[in-house]
Design a protein that fits this description.
The protein is an alpha/beta fold. It folds into 2 domains: 203 residues, Rossmann fold (3-Layer(aba) Sandwich), CATH 3.40.50; 112 residues, 3-Layer(aba) Sandwich (Rossmann fold). The protein has 11 helices and 14 strands. The strands form 3 sheets. Strands 2-1-3-4-5-6-9-10 form an 8-stranded mixed beta sheet, with helices on both faces. A 4-stranded parallel beta sheet has the order 11-12-13-14, with helices on both faces. The longest helix is centred in the N-terminal third of the chain and has 16 residues. It is globular and about 65 Å long.
Length: 355
Amino acid sequence: MTHALRVLVFLLLTLALPVTGFGADKKPVVAVLATGGTIAGGAESDTATIGYKAAVFGVDKLLAAVPSLGRVADIRAEQVFQLASENMTPAHWLVLGKRVNQALKDPDVAGVVITHGTDTLEETAYFLNLTVRSDKPVVITGSMRPATAISADGPINLFNAVCLAASPEARGKGVFILMNDTIFAARDTTKTNTFRTDTFAAPDTGPLGVMQLGRPLFHRLPVRAHTVSTEFDIATLTSLPQVEILYGYAGSHPAQVTGALATGARGIVNAGTGNGSLPDASKQAFAGASAKGVVVVRASRTGSGVVTRNGEVDDDALGFVAAGNLTAQKARVLLALALTVTADRARIQKMFDTY
């Protein structure tokens, strides 16, 4: 048999078999919840990858662009929101989180895929990682190029996301971010570039694995507690506590803290320089906020590395919490949820060490 013939036989066999490994007589059910974003975006030109309008196509259009999904799973599609992800809010998270939990209660549903804009995708993913009450796979995906682009990455990302959500191998591993053929843990992953398709990365830990021919190949597992192992229950929540993020810089002014308190913030995350450093000019303002009962979390603006407790600041004396290696935006998510359970600083620090 010639090499070309062997390749042809392999391709025909691949097309003839379900890519997820389920029997041909029964495909898994995957719920696809759409929220808008670039993956649903459109532009006037097929070469335009900037200057497009996000969230113009509905979920039916997204699915129609990937006809091979019919070989992978039976899809239950729903348009939950239709927005650009810079407009995503904690109120949207609560609606989405409750909808995900409801979908996963159905014994026929193998997993959930969420399509989402990439600007705040990592925050939504981490929120779900802390609040999903099931070990079934939840996969959040998007695209860096609009659906109208000749090199749109949305269809292959959606295909891989459905394959991952349908795979029994994905159970019990928390919420995934699936982009650019790469499987990431929701906790560890951040957007690192404004336009490249390989924008998502996990700087401290690396990805969990990759997708190959519609199958997940895992290289490692997440070790932090997630989903069914957390203490957060959003079933009856109607809002989340206000938490503000401040940014450290040379000459940063204590008036930032005053402004955050004026919003009614119950928590403040400071994206400090280096190891979460606080300048002397601002330290007393943060200490004053802490003394008033506002929970202050020290994070870092660097994008990777661990903010060490009592490393740059006497956290014990001032009542601060160290964010570990969570980015400021993810520390905000965790702090908001923590404040629905407790205001005790020691207990909140334990949550940051656990999740």
